[in-house]
Design goal:
It contains 18 helices and 22 strands. The protein has 481 residues and is α/β, with parallel strands linked by helices. 45% of the residues are buried. This is CBS domain-containing protein.
Amino acid sequence: MEEFFKSVTFEDFLIRPHHGMLDSRKDANLTMQFSRRISIKTPIVGANMDTVTGENMMKALSLNGCFGFIHRNCSIEKEARQVAAVKRQQSFIVANPLAVGKNMPIKEAKRIVKIEKVSGLLVEESPGSGILAGILSRRDFPRDNDEKLVSEFMTPFDRLVTAKEGVSLEEAERVMYEIRKEKLPIIDENGKIRGLVTMKDLEKSKHFPYSSIDSRGRLLVGATIGATGDFMERAAAIIEAEADCVLIDIAHGDSEVMRKAVESFKAKFPNTELVCGNVGTRDGARFLADLGADAVKVGIGPGHGCRTRIETGVGVPQMQAIREAYLGVDGRVPIIADGGIEDDGEIAKAIFCGADTVMLGSMIAGTDESPGVISINPATKKQVKKYRGMTSPDAVLDRNDWENPSEILESSPAQEGQPLEIDYVGSVVPIIKRIREHLQSTVSYTGQRTLSLVHKLAVASPYDYFINKLTEAAQKESFDR
């Protein structure tokens, strides 16, 4: 590794400006590869901590172009429920639309529409057959004749425009505008109902242009497992709930424990995207990439809630760790920089030296969307939220039975995390917007149009993009505000 990056961290560097190419920073594209098969439009990842990323934070992150991992400091059932809730949050394709048989009395169809609060129903040939026969909208309902059948008032199949499975949001929108209809049934080659696109859901999707979504327009969601105990049972539950990516998260990812866990996971779930961490060295990152990780999470002890470096003496300065990891994976998989970020400019520095995305904890822990409640600090009178490392004593207790706290702490490994209070700052959405705009400014200052291209150039030629080893006076001039 270059001497340039040895024993350094974020405040040792500034980014060198280059000749600008953009008319406006708003034109800068921030899309980055998160894992082997997932890209996101804002390179931010919510930390898998129980005071950072739960269901609400995951929804907010994905709606605004980021990603995250729901924490595992809860029961398997609760984690799976949170994953499922995020996947249900939005979709431009309704996966299991309401359908009624064509021989149902209109009276019963009216009742269903009223109870379910929908504007219409798909009609199938017979109840449970799934074969599309037509569409019945609220406008088709007669004022009387409630005993007549749905088939007498529906728009029949031969007058419908339908789409095949796999239709894109853009194609569905184009077709619906052409036919001037608010519903587009999705069917397979046998005419069986596979979904429904509605104009209302399309418009909702367009309100969040940066959203991290799957092929059906549903929000992407990540979830966390460990490497021992019930980790395979937990993996099965969150994958069944349709998690898009699983994170195996342990303190020391460069280990035989991780090897066994990844081999077990890959044997049973070979098609599920897998992120592994944490590591802090070139060899550690190479080890995880060789195992088949789809992204590598990097950071040993840089975070606010972590005391590993203090309690054990082990760690690697975060800029050096990121650079080592980048060199270790040799471009095979993306790098997620986890921890140590104090301000928005350090996100750019992490990406310029080798990270593809950056995981945030304390920067977003004080928001409405993070788990936990707002309280008042009695000394400062400020509104605060709790933030803690996942090996802090209270986090360990929350994973177990509070009836015997002394026994739990005595039988657990020595804690390397600590609890803190973070100032309450409102919603996470303005924070994401601010970070996005600052990263767009960085792209503009560095003379390119896309963050991915700046990343590619900077990691290949860091001397052209970094001013390093700032003197104490230069640091004061730069950061003392």
